[in-house]
Specification:
- 57% of the residues lie in helices and 6% in strands.
- Helix 7 packs antiparallel against helix 9.
- Strands 1-2 form a two-stranded antiparallel ribbon.
- By secondary structure, the protein is mainly alpha-helical.
- The longest helix is centred in the middle third of the chain and has 29 residues.
- The protein is built from nine helices and two strands; from the N terminus they run ααααββααααα.
- The chain has two domains: 99 residues, Arc Repressor Mutant, subunit A; 98 residues, no CATH class.
- It is elongated and about 65 Å long.
């Protein structure tokens, strides 16, 4: 796959191509299908109408999809139906195999928060980590319930591997947050004396030590 075509394969583009493997669709149908399949427990890609149309235009520009017909129902605007091309199938398979095999340079927001945690007042940091722990526990319970419902349907399990993966990731994150809280409370992790102890107002926390 050449470099320009590879740049067209954003996460949203991959999701579009995956759907077009099933059948030809127009953009509105693609949008609705994505939203129906992406529940709160199964968010895979962000779907915005403007971004979706732009993505399909890019895929068509690189001959990864092609228009097969334009239809109109009543007074509704014309709708162009697209299908995946052979080049699109090849590009999708190539990108997917590399996504599975290789780790990408990703920059999760929480990773940055962890790196900058020492900039917060210690008590505030502990409070917010406890909030995150509560949210993680709730999300994990929901994901486990979804996974449990699928456990008996062997024929469908392959289509829900992402739920199993999210369960594993949330379990690991919850364990890390819990362990980190324990280390802070046990004194194993100590805040640097030079920390500005930022408060939610954006500046250093000027509350006297004995009033915190």
């Amino acid at each position: 796959m050449d470099e320009p075509a590879e740049r067209a394969l954003s996460p949203l583009a991959m999701a579009v191509l995956e759907l077009l493997h099933e059948r030809s669709m127009h953009p509105y149908e693609i949008q609705q299908t994505m939203r129906e399949r992406q529940t709160a427990e199964r968010r895979i890609v962000k779907v915005r109408v403007g971004s979706l149309y732009h993505t399909i235009e890019r895929l068509e520009r690189f001959a990864l999809v092609e228009a097969v017909e334009t239809t109109r129902e009543g007074r509704r605007p014309e709708r162009t139906v697209y299908r995946i091309t052979d080049a699109g199938r090849e590009a999708f398979a190539d990108r997917l195999t590399r996504m599975v095999a290789l780790s990408a340079d990703e920059y999760p927001e929480f990773l940055m928060a962890v790196a900058f945690l020492h900039q917060l007042d210690q008590e505030l940091a502990v409070q917010k980590l406890r909030v995150r722990r509560t949210h993680l526990a709730g999300e994990l319970a929901t994901l486990r319930a979804v996974s449990s419902c699928l456990a008996d349907d062997v024929s469908e399990r392959m289509y829900w591997l992402d739920v199993d993966y999210r369960v594993a990731m949330r379990e690991a994150e919850l364990a890390w947050v819990t362990e980190t809280l324990d280390r802070i409370e046990d004194g194993d992790l100590r805040w640097p004396a030079s920390s500005p102890a930022l408060s939610p107002g954006g500046g250093p926390d000027t509350t006297p030590e004995d009033e915190r």
